[in-house]
Structures are given as C-alpha cells and as structure tokens.
Design a protein that fits this description.
Layout (H helix, E strand, L loop, with lengths): L2 H31 L1
Pfam families: MaAIMP_sms
Protein name: Methionine/alanine importer small subunit
Organism: Anoxybacillus kestanbolensis
C-alpha cells in the first residue's frame, strides 16, 4: 500500500471513530441529565 493511501485510511478512521465517540459521549450526557 502507498503512503498516501495509508494516510487517507488513517484520516478516515479517525473521522469515523471520532464521530462515533462524540455521539456516544453526547448520548451518555443526555441520559444523565434526565
């Protein structure tokens, strides 16, 4: 695999997992308030 492809894969994974972690944290915060 080329370096550029590897970097793009890592960037995509960070965006996907970062968004997933943010949504989970938001859901936990909402459930604790109610």
């Amino acid at each position: 695999m080329e370096t550029s492809a590897l970097i793009m894969m890592l960037v995509g994974m960070v965006i996907i997992w970062g968004g997933f972690a943010a949504s989970v944290a938001h859901a936990v915060k909402k459930s604790r308030q109610s």
